[in-house]
Structure formats: C-alpha cells, structure tokens
Amino acid sequence: MTKTIAINTSEHDVLLTARKTHPAVFVDGMFLDGVERVEFTNRFLESCEVVLTFNDRVETNPFPLNDITLLEKLFGQSLNGQSLRDIVVQTLEDAD
Q1: Residue 64 CA to its chain's centroid (Å)
Q2: Measured CA distances, 38 to 23, 35, 43, 49 (Å)
Q3: Buried/exposed 50-81: b ≥16 CB within 10 Å, e otherwise
Q4: Contact 35/25 with Cβ under 8 angstroms?
Q5: Domain membership of residue 10 as a residue range
Q6: pLDDT tens-digit map of 46-62
Q7: What total of structural domains would you count in the chain?
Q8: Cα separation of the two ends of the chain
Q9: Is the CB of residue 75 less than 8 Å from the CB of residue 5?
Q10: Is the predicted pLDDT of residue 1 greater than 60, yes or no?
C-alpha cells in the first residue's frame, strides 16, 4: 500500500523544518511523525501542493493522524469539508 497523500496548500498550511537528521512536518499546526519524503510542486498562479510519503512510523501519531485513510480525508484531495472532529466522531460511530 502506498502511504502518500497530496495536500493542497490553498486549503492547508504545511510547515517543514529540519535540523541534522530530525525533520519535522506540521500540517495546520499538527505534527505528523513518519514523514519519509516531502515533494513540493508549484504551478505558478494555478496551484501548489505538497506530497507527503509516510513510513511505518505514521502509526505512532495520535488517533486519527495515525491512519493514512483518515489523513487523506482530513488533508488530501478527497477532502469533503470534514473537520478533525467530524472524522473522529464518524470513525468512532463506524466502530460500533
């Protein structure tokens, strides 16, 4: 399974900071562990996106940031207006 999501920077803030071998990626202020690769694409005056590729450490993030499917719902192209709270509530209801 590919663990990659594309984030539109018109809708979300993405911050990458790195020092030595310790990169840190934040999306809308939330730290995401397990980011292995960051690709930035800028189509001048059209769109910008950041593609994040995750390794297995993504599972160490707190729920719901520990699941690629939920990260895609929250930040990715399949965004349907759900907030973090909406995703948590829906996931908990689906588990019942």
Answers
A1: 11
A2: 10, 7, 17, 10
A3: bebebeeebeebeebbbbbebbbbbbbeeeee
A4: yes
A5: 4-95
A6: 889 999 999 999 999 99
A7: 1
A8: 26
A9: yes
A10: no
